[in-house]
Amino acid sequence: MTSVDERLARAALTRVVEPGDVHAGRWLRQYGAVGFLQRLRDVAEAPDAFAGTGEKRVAGWRLRAANTEPGRDLDAVGRHGGRFVVPGDVEWPRQLDDLGDTRPVGLWIRGRADLRTWALRSVAVVGARACTPYGAHMATTLASGLAEEGWVVVSGAAFGIDGAAHRGALAARGATVAVLACGVDIPYPRGHAGLIGRVAEQGLVIGELPPGSHPTPSRFILRNRVIAALTRGTVVVEAEYRSGSLVTARAAARLGRHTMGVPGAVTSGLSAGVHELLRGEATLVTEAAEVIELVGDMGQLAPVRRGPVLPRDLLAPDAARVLEAMPAGPATPVGDIADRSGATLDDTLVRLYELHSLGFVERQGDDWRLTNTATEGANARRGGT
To answer: Same domain for 375 and 243?
Structure first.
């Protein structure tokens, strides 16, 4: 169990250092949270305490460290029904340790569920903010399908694909996690205040920044590494070439997680980034079952896809061969049909009467012809040609 001093120090450090700061992560690893914070607050500390880190960066840390009040932040998140989880806690998702020195100092959380348990069975669904109706439909469908199968849907609560993914999971009464680039008490974007509130009630809202913190462009990008590390795989639904969603997917690939993409129209710029992923490290997926096949347990295979089963598909091989030998158009003598099928005259007659009973052929005098039903079935089998 994490000590009170360690928790307070880490809570303070979330106000001191920016998320994903590898320099801060190195000193945090070397000195521990308490030692790192003490060295920042001690203005008389030897100048080589942070050797290799720029003076301007350290000066900023020291300025912010002098004004932190972690107790107030812990009280603030508590008033929102939240908590602060740090490495060493039972609830800490250990897969975040894969981030090394860019691992979060701690996570501020709103919601009743256990993050570590949920993260073990989670999938990220991310994509463009300015998505198309097709993209929103696919994100919603994927998320609801995953939620129905007991998977937790993780996203960033942004407009577009993120919001559609959260709504899909909520509509299926499933589990969803919103990873914010601001304080968990700040609904951002404002237009998603109601959605984020629903996620906090039914799922979890988490973030690296303390209460009251506002997002910045860099914080959105850095937030994506948490989404990638927290989940077992990342699905990208619509993304341009320069998209933060691609940052998430590539971070997932570097961490050894599954990377997946939903294809779109090749003429759509919103699918260009996804298609570039699919040309490289990503796997094409079109439904929840295909996602689960990748991220789930051994043997959880997606159903094999095939076209509709036609009546002629159920015929025995000998009967099917005779039917295939029947030409379209006028009635044909039995001898010609036997020659075409490679069967004897007697066997051909037996199969023709069998096909007659099933409605595939009809007799005209001594000759035989295909019925309209058989002709339509043959066209369907050939793709309508």
So the answer is: no
Query: For residues 369 and 332, is the Cβ–Cβ distance under 8 A?
Result: yes
CA distance 153 to 291: 12
Which residues have a Cβ under 8 Å from the Cβ of 300 and sit 6 or more positions away? Answer: 292, 293
What's the CA gap between 248 and 225, in Å, rounded?
Answer: 6
Do residues 369 and 278 both lie within one domain? no
Q: Virtual CA dihedral for 217, 221, 222, 228, nearest 10 degrees? A: 150
29 pLDDT more than 90: yes
Please indicate, yes or no, if residue 47 is contained in any of the structural domains: no
Query: For position 163, which CATH number holds?
Result: 3.40.50.450
Per the rule left: phi > 0, alpha: psi between -120 and 50, beta: everything else, 230 is: alpha
Tell me the C-alpha distance between 126 and 227, whole Å.
9
Parallel, antiparallel or unpaired: strands 82-85 and 176-180: unpaired
349 is written with which tokens? 């007659």
Q: If pLDDT is split at 50, 70 and 90, which confidence band does 163 have? A: very high
Q: What CATH number does residue 332 fall under?
A: 1.10.10.10
Distance CA 360, CA 213 (A): 73
How far apart CA 178 and CA 195 sit, in angstroms, is 10
Determine the 3-state secondary structure of 74 from DSSP. helix
For residues 292 and 296, give the distance between their C-alpha atoms in angstroms, rounded to a whole number. 5
List of residues 6+ apart from 321 with CB closer than 8 A: 341, 342, 343, 351
Binning pLDDT at 50, 70 and 90, where does residue 384 land?
very low
- Please indicate, yes or no, if residue 86 is contained in any of the structural domains: no
Domain limit, last residue, from 238, 262, 295: 295
| Domain extent for 325 | 311-381
Q: Are 154 and 176 in contact (CB under 8 A)?
A: yes
Residue 385: per-residue pLDDT: 42
**DSSP conformational letter for 302:** P
Average pLDDT over residues 4-26: 95
pTM value is 0.81
Beta-sheet pairing, 82-85 with 204-207: unpaired
Domain shared by 260 and 201, yes or no: yes
Give the dihedral of Cα atoms 225, 229, 230, 231; nearest 10 deg.
110
Tokens at 297, concatenated: 């347990």
At residue 48, the pLDDT reads: 74
